[in-house]
Structures are given as structure tokens and as C-alpha cells.
Amino acid sequence: MANTREYLLVWDSTMANPNGDMLNDNKPRHDEITGQLEVSDVRIKRFVRDEWQSRGHNVLVRTKKGDDGKVMSCTALIKEVMEKAKVKEAELPSHLLNEYIDVRLFGAVITKPKYDITGPLQVMWSKSVNPAEIKFMQGNSAYAGGEGKSQSTIWSKYISPYAIFKTYAVYNDNAAKRQGIETSEKDLNEFTAALINGLINYRSTSKNQMPRLLVEVIYKEHRIDGELNYVDVNFDTEAEEVRDISQVTLDLEKLCKYYDCKKESIDTVRIYKHGSVKVNNLPDDFKVIDF
């Protein structure tokens, strides 16, 4: 059984829509009071799941179409899983935990038959450190909107020039033990790799993000800080004017102090670092991995 650990991911988004709100014209989700952008846990886990699939892992929570070309419901997908694996209803939870890495880590809500598996690895909502501008963009597409039209259609979308985020996640070994989930070190290494590479590899006209620093604190015993918000993001200019990672410095002084206070309970602190990011107060006690 893997030990409890916490994660803090610092990442940025450039000329993109980090997480569109479909109920608000797909504008970037944002806090109207502070101007900070928001990203749901679902969006982050989608990056991870997509990367897992590309690495050959079985992923349960995904969009899949049936023979009729329509997106399958949860009930239909589970029925297909049971038929292909030839498992009975009572065997379903253990089968899902054994075969699907996203169920083993993130959990799953199965509607029929009714099963709830609480994931021992939880990802929280993220907010941008800086208040970020939202721009409305338009342009001409290559094609007309229909036959006989003399002009091409006009596309429109919302983007934000630049935003830098902190995302907190925690793996709770007690949550795994209560449900009999055998989470291995390999599982959590696969999560770390997919978290970093999922952000790097997923690119579209609306998504352009890059992980800059990932802190992973592995504990000797069961303990949780609860936020691990010990990385300061400092800007070389006004926060509203920042547009590039070159204008950002990450300071680990608070993380060093946390480690000094809790080192008897901490096994390892791993720092995964992108080559373009400036980092202050990075001690020799931490294991640094460049990506």
C-alpha cells in the first residue's frame, strides 16, 4: 500500500481557454469578484485520463459511442464491461478496481448496478494566481455556412492571454484501506507522469497549457497538511500585465519551512521542474527531477 502524499502543481495557460463554462457561452470559468480564472477537478482529471489511455491503460470514465453512433450512458457502458469480462454484479467492484486505473485512484459512481467507489486520490478545483483578462475573438473560417453562400462563416471564441494556476491534490491511504483498494507506488507514479505529460500533450485551438512545477510530499505516516500551498508565485510586473513564464519566479521558502517543521513525518519531497521556470530557495534535501 502506497503512503499518503500531497501534490501541488503550478501550471500556466497562454492564449487559451483553460476551462470553458458551457452554461455561459463557453467563456473561461472565472470569479467575477476577483477576476481569477477557475478550473474544475474534472478538467484536470480529463488531461490525466487521456494521457493514461495514450499509454495503454484501461480507463473507465471516457466518452464512448455505441454501434448506433450515439454516446453511451454509464449504464450501457457498465453492461458492456460486464458482458465482455463475463463478470457478475457482485464481482463488478473488484473487477473495476483491478482493471481500471482511474477507478482505482479517482473512484467512480456507477448508476446501475448502484456502486459508489470513493477515490483515494482527490483533485481540487484550481484558481489562477493572477486576475486574468478574458478576450472575445472572431475570424473567418475556410468554409461557407451552406451551399450557395458567397462568404465563409465567422468563428468566435473567448480566450485569456495568460493565467498561472495552482492545483492541489491528495492521496489518502486511509481512504484506500477502508475500501480495500490496493494502491501501489506504480499507480501513483503513473498519476504523476500523466499529470505532467497530460498537460503537455493535450493541445487544441482552446487548450495551450504547460506544467511548470510539481511538488510531491510523501509522508512516512498518515498525515495531511490539507492544502500544501507553500509555493509563492512572484511576478516581475503587475499581476494583471503578466503574459509569459519568463516574468514569473517561484519561491519555495515556505515549503522549506514546512519541511523543517514536519521532517520527522516526511519521507521524501520531490520537485518536478520545467527548464524554463525560475525557482528560488530550492534546497538540496529535495529530490529534483527536470522534465
User: How many beta-strand runs?
Assistant: 16
* Cα shape: flat
Largest sheet features:
9 strands, mixed
Structural class by SSE content: alpha+beta
What is the typical, i.e. mean, pLDDT?
94
Helix content: 25-40%
**What is the H-and-E element order?**
EEEEHHHHEEEEEEHHEEEHEEE
Question: What is the compact description of this entry?
Answer:
One of its GO terms (biological process) is maintenance of CRISPR repeat elements. With 291 residues, the chain is of the alpha+beta class.
Report on this model:
The protein is α+β, with helices and mostly antiparallel strands. It has one domain (5-57, 119-290). 25% of the residues lie in helices and 35% in strands. Strands 1, 4, 7, 8, 9, 10, 11, 14 and 16 form a 9-stranded mixed beta sheet that branches. Strands 12-13-15 form a 3-stranded mixed beta sheet, with no helix packed on it. Strand 2 and strand 3 (27-28) form a beta hairpin. Helix 1 crosses helix 6. The longest helix has 17 residues, at 185-201. The chain is flat, with a radius of gyration of 21 Å. The model has no long low-confidence stretch (mean pLDDT 94). Pfam families: Cas_Cas7 (PF05107). InterPro entries: Cas7_Csh2/Csh2 (IPR006482), CRISPR-assoc_prot_Cas7/Csh2 (IPR013419). This is CRISPR-associated protein Csh2.
